[in-house]
């Protein structure tokens, strides 16, 4: 599950490393983006990422962190917020949005 296929190709990214076109995302791209962030994706990462992708498909915008926390809380309970920041220690926008293939949200800081 954590293997990157030999055919994995990184799509075009902006100067900060976010995908230019979220439609270019796939799981191999997520693994490449995660490797750039020194993150090895596990089941909890994929749970958050898949929720974010589903949210994007439905709403055409990146999910706010509070929606991801609410989603994780269904499985993890009250520790969901802490878990999100353990999974993506340099920030939701900086790492989670990037790995999930979102464009950099303009109104959010990268902190």
TrEMBL record:
<protein>
    <submittedName>
        <fullName>Putative sulfite reductase</fullName>
    </submittedName>
</protein>
<dbReference type="InterPro" id="IPR043163">
    <property type="entry name" value="DsrC-like_N"/>
</dbReference>
<dbReference type="Pfam" id="PF04358">
    <property type="entry name" value="DsrC"/>
</dbReference>
<dbReference type="InterPro" id="IPR007453">
    <property type="entry name" value="DsrC/TusE"/>
</dbReference>
<dbReference type="InterPro" id="IPR042072">
    <property type="entry name" value="DsrC-like_C"/>
</dbReference>
<dbReference type="InterPro" id="IPR025526">
    <property type="entry name" value="DsrC-like_dom_sf"/>
</dbReference>
<comment type="similarity">
    <text>Belongs to the DsrC/TusE family.</text>
</comment>
<dbReference type="GO" id="GO:0002143">
    <property type="term" value="P:tRNA wobble position uridine thiolation"/>
</dbReference>
<dbReference type="GO" id="GO:0097163">
    <property type="term" value="F:sulfur carrier activity"/>
</dbReference>
<keyword id="KW-0963">Cytoplasm</keyword>
<dbReference type="GO" id="GO:0005737">
    <property type="term" value="C:cytoplasm"/>
</dbReference>
